[in-house]
């Protein structure tokens, strides 16, 4: 403990005057001053009178050879100028020694927790810290989600047990924290007593920081013993240890994401819907009524996030399971997004969901994207823009293949055209696929195939002659489309 800290603490009990601090020395022992002593230790605080009937003084040899000192006076309001005589010597000595002993105890407790933190996870260290503080502990993030809590003691407070069960803090705590934040300059060194109007238990709160950013709160409850000065001093330091451990886990991963991005992370993790709605309300975010979900493969994710936010300021972006994903709110009156331009701007592969209206269906769309991502990597060359809707039928085939040999489902017309092409060096099957893809538009099909329209008409007549199908019948179209999809799937899956 520094000399200035001891003087500051003693000033709460006695009147100190004529204070001179030449250098703020660390004090590790306290002795009664004797003028005949001759030699004095640098890290020792001496308490006594230099000569008889002189004022009682605090003396400490400064690092520069001078003396740190302060005169101790009577704390009586009616007689503030009277000097403490010999009878006050023992009282001051015991008080100062008590402060030093308290700091030693604090240091020992903190050392114990630090030792555990070297080889254990945050949950174990949180349990040890609760035992050292002799009270229960809880960690809450900036969105007031319950991230962790100590298991050393049971939570006797049913209100806070409910918070654990539902996974987030009640609104009274949220409003109280916001009030403290506005009224008090918070720091990593302070803890704040927090009364609860709905509970008989008090709370002590310290803010958590990770990489110099506020990331949450550590909360202690007086459910085993009332708060002590030592606990108030230890809580912020323990909070720092816990936040450092949490920073190594997925809980605090990627602090570059916005607070709104946490809403997307929450829904993907399956956080309680009520908690998400509460958090969205707190940060004044309105859940979108129509949206698309994107998975983005990028060589420079940080740059891609910046570019995406420039293109779509309302987008939610987050790194989830080592993927960059985004949720794009859609404006019904806005024109359709030009995905080709977006892809060229981002220089990334995009996998794009269908538009949907239920925000809480986002995990299902993410799972669908995962399956399609895996499927496209198996079936064909990697495309830069993948629309999920283009692979729904292929997904059904992949699912059916698990219980059925799909080769028996081959369309004989598709097989006939395939064999004809191989024997006659023609391109009837690819022409049919392009014709169906263009919706039966002959001009567009011819342009896509880089052939004359009359050449296309000749090929279509040949296809009709070989298959006997009417290409103007919707049922025949559906039959051919299914056959083409199956043919493509079997080709790339090795069937």
TrEMBL record:
It comes from the Bacteria. Gene3D superfamilies: PucR C-terminal helix-turn-helix domain. InterPro entries: CdaR-like_regulators, Homeodomain-like_sf, PucR_C-HTH_dom, PucR_C-HTH_sf. Residues 428-485 form the PucR C-terminal helix-turn-helix domain. This is Transcriptional regulator, CdaR.
């Amino acid at each position: 403990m520094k000399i200035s800290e001891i003087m500051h603490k003693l000033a709460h009990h006695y009147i100190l005057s004529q204070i001179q601090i030449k250098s703020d020395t660390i004090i590790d022992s306290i002795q009664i001053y004797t003028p005949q002593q001759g030699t004095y230790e640098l890290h020792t605080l001496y308490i006594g009178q230099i000569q008889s009937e002189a004022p009682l003084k605090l003396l400490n040899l400064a690092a520069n050879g001078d003396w740190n000192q302060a005169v101790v006076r009577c704390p009586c309001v009616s007689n503030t100028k009277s000097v403490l005589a010999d009878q006050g010597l023992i009282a001051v000595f015991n008080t100062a020694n008590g402060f030093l002993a308290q700091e030693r105890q604090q240091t020992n407790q903190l050392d114990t927790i630090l030792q555990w933190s070297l080889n254990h996870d945050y949950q174990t260290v949180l349990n040890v810290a609760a035992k050292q503080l002799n009270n229960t502990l809880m960690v809450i993030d900036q969105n007031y989600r319950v991230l962790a809590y100590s298991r050393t003691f049971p939570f006797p407070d049913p209100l806070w047990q409910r918070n654990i069960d539902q996974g987030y803090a009640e609104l009274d705590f949220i409003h109280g924290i916001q009030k403290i934040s506005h009224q008090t300059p918070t720091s990593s060194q302070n803890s704040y007593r927090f009364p609860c109007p709905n509970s008989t238990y008090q709370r002590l709160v310290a803010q958590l920081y990770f990489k110099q950013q506020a990331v949450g709160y550590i909360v202690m409850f007086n459910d085993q013993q009332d708060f002590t000065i030592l606990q108030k001093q230890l809580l912020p330091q323990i909070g720092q240890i816990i936040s450092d451990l949490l920073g190594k886990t997925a809980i605090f991963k990627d602090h570059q994401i916005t607070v709104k991005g946490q809403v997307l992370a929450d829904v993907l993790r399956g956080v309680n819907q009520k908690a998400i709605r509460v958090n969205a309300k707190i940060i004044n975010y309105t859940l979108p009524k129509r949206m698309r979900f994107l998975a983005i493969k990028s060589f420079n994710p940080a740059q891609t996030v910046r570019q995406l936010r420039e293109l779509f300021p309302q987008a939610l972006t987050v790194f989830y399971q080592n993927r960059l994903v985004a949720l794009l709110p859609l404006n019904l009156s806005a024109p359709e997004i030009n995905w080709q331009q977006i892809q060229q701007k981002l220089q990334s592969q995009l996998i794009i969901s269908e538009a949907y209206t239920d925000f809480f269906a986002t995990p299902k769309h993410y799972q669908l994207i995962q399956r399609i991502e895996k499927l496209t990597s198996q079936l064909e060359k990697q495309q830069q823009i993948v629309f999920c809707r283009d692979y729904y039928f292929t997904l059904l085939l992949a699912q059916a293949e698990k219980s059925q040999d799909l080769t028996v489902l081959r369309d004989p017309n598709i097989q006939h055209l395939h064999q004809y092409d191989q024997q006659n060096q023609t391109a009837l099957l690819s022409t049919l696929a392009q014709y169906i893809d263009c919706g039966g538009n002959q001009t567009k099909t011819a342009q896509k195939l880089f052939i004359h329209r009359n050449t296309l008409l000749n090929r279509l007549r040949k296809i009709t002659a070989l298959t006997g199908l009417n290409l103007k019948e919707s049922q025949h179209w559906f039959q051919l489309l299914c056959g083409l999809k199956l043919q493509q799937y079997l080709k790339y899956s090795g069937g």
